[in-house]
């Protein structure tokens, strides 16, 4: 998935679904690291891609949380 597609997808998601997606990405990252360490796969670039998607998700999540807090004030 392209970077802009991922960002648009995350912007459309709710906070609850972003938190669930964060857990999924963390589990995916751990399984990728495990499989690379034991030689099951050579797709090292998938680790980099997953880390970047996780960072994008966390950025959008923090923006949404901050905007929700500012609306309540």
TrEMBL record:
Any one GO CC term of the record: ribonucleoprotein complex
Biological process according to GO: translation
Signal peptide (UniProt feature, chain positions): none
Keyword vocabulary terms for this entry: Ribonucleoprotein, Ribosomal protein
Record family assignment: Belongs to the universal ribosomal protein uL29 family.
HAMAP family: Ribosomal_uL29
Protein name: Large ribosomal subunit protein uL29
């Amino acid at each position: 998935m392209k970077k802009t597609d991922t960002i648009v997808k995350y912007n459309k998601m709710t906070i609850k679904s972003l938190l669930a997606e964060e857990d999924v990405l963390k589990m995916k990252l751990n399984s990728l690291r495990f499989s690379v360490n034991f030689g099951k796969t050579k797709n090292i670039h998938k680790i980099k891609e997953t880390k970047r998607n996780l960072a994008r998700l966390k950025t959008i999540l923090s923006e949404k949380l901050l905007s929700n807090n500012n609306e309540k004030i």
